[in-house]
């Protein structure tokens, strides 16, 4: 086929199969680590390649995931958006949580890993007879006396127990009693438990951010209330402009908080949804004498998610309130400017009227002055031709006519100028 292909077609088609579960048999033990890495993740990728070469296994051929058999155990590495996960799996006889698979890794290699550990857990799966009730005392001893939540999962084919607390080695623990699971179902269960523990911790990263910015939000909300109260009592344009400047400062600080926390809060919401989805996949049913895992997380984990969601909603609400207050302040400034403009136009109109009156007065004086000089010229012109008495008579007769004529000419010119303007 010669049809041009989209450059991402093959990668998108393979995405559905990028993280398949690993088949496991009972008994088995699993150690899972989630490590926050740099955006490129090259340091951890190089470490995985080195580990594979130590055991003579093939190094990663791509930078998103890799699985390999390293001697007596299997390793699986995956890169996610914010973190990378490393899972070590060992099948066969186990000794519970006393010697987890992570201890099989070279200690110098673990110490040299690039990144920060955000989540870590052990999963131990042991076969149990169908219908055999769990030994509560023995299970609690596995969790060092901590309060344990437990339930039946996957249609009653297994029982899962956890305390959602770190043990003495800093790892969380899941203990699974295998009642009738296949290898594929066992692998899927391990993957879901590890994802629940990892996504739970990633979701909780938003809680410290929410607690840190809550005092700043309280301060901004108080400042906004004060500015709204002052908005109705401003006396002049300068005071309103100063209030608007303060409002812009509040808006700037609010946007800084949003930019600082928006990604973390959206990630918290997304990880929270993933935890709920994985819990739904477990298909829990109640186990006598134990609190179900979903119920435990609903009472302890959901409040943290709601706190983050509440702070994010407060940020959005504050931004909307600031925008509305800014619109009101700008409206008041516009109204004040319009009042000043009307006052200025009225003052200009008064000055124009005064100038018109002065112009009319000057125009009258101009008629008299022009007539005076015109009569003087007539007197000079006729002075040598007629007698003095006759000249006086001519001037007396000419003066009114000349005044009227000059007045008409000036009026005509003014009318022409007014028409042109």
Percent of residues in helices: 55-70%
Largest sheet: 9 strands, mixed
Runs with pLDDT <50, length 5+?
Answer: none
Structural class: alpha+beta
Tell me the overall shape. Answer: rod-shaped
Instruction: Please give the order of strands in the largest beta sheet.
Output: 2-3-4-1-5-8-7-6-9
Mean pLDDT: 85
Ends apart, CA distance between termini = 79 Å
- The gyration radius over C-alpha positions equals 45 Å
Alpha plus pi helix count: 10
Tally of DSSP β-strands: 9
Number of domains: 3
The secondary-structure element order is HEHEEEHEHEEEHHHEHHH
Strand content: 5-15%
Question: How would you describe this structure in keywords?
Answer:
single chain, 421 residues, alpha+beta, 9-stranded mixed sheet, 9 strands, 15% strand, rod-shaped
Word description of this protein:
- With 421 residues, the chain is an alpha+beta fold.
- The protein folds into three domains: 172 residues, no CATH class; 137 residues; 53 residues, no CATH class.
- The protein is 59% helix and 15% strand.
- Helix 6 packs parallel to helix 9.
Please outline the helices and strands.
Layout lengths: L8 H7 L12 E9 L5 H13 L10 E6 L2 E7 L3 E9 L15 H5 L4 E12 L8 H7 L6 E5 L4 E5 L9 E7 L4 H22 L1 H26 L5 H46 L2 E2 L6 H8 L1 H81 L5 H33 L1
Parallel strand pairs: 5-8
Antiparallel strand pairs: 1-4, 1-5, 2-3, 3-4, 6-7, 6-9, 7-8
Helix pairs in contact: 5-7, 6-7, 6-9, 7-9, 9-10
Give a brief outline of the structure.
The protein is α+β, with helices and mostly antiparallel strands. It contains 10 helices and 9 strands. The chain is 59% helix and 15% strand.
